[in-house]
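Fold it.
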Amino acid sequence: MAKEKILVVEDEEDISDLIEYNLKKNGYIVTCVPTGEEALKAVRISIPDLIVLDLMLPGVDGLEVCKILRHDPITQNLPIIMLTAKGEETDIVTGLEVGADDYITKPFSPRVLIARVRTVFRRKAKETAKNDTPVHIHEMVIHPGRHEVLANGRPIDLTYTEFRILHFLALRPGWVFSRDQIIDAVRGDDYPVTDRSVDIQIVGLRKKLGECGKYIETIRGVGYRFKE
């Protein structure tokens, strides 16, 4: 039975070889490219099931590759695990904002890499199996299958993470969720982000929603909820 196809985008040959070896060892079909330009070309030829994408690349960097893929309707839900030599909060937040599904800092254990890959695939399978019914609430329509949001009849352009947060809160109006609960629901357990990254996503989400942004309420000392 064929396994999932993974595209590895990494310009350091020794790291690329390490990732390729361990992924193939675990049954995945692997293609490796060293640049962002080659990654985008490879995706146009054949869309993989997941991308392991280095942040620091020559030419078109990993963040720009991620942005391009997220703005293309064909690849907007393509799972992406970002690799970086940096572990600073700002880098993690940036990775979240452009829509990475997970984030691993170098140096990393091959076992951790494989565990993260499996987690992303499990999460993707669960999402695919979920009910695809649009959510109609207040003046908004949220369509998970199409990744579309209408607010007062106006289409809203949201990042992958913003959409996931909005959909999660809107499915449970009136329920209060902590930042940790939102992170777990949107990204999965043990995701290396801080409370501040959730706050940044909420601020951006409210701004894009305009008048409808008022329905996302801050509960001081607790977290956020979607108004009933």
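The domain at 135-226 is CATH 1.10.10.10 (Arc Repressor Mutant, subunit A).
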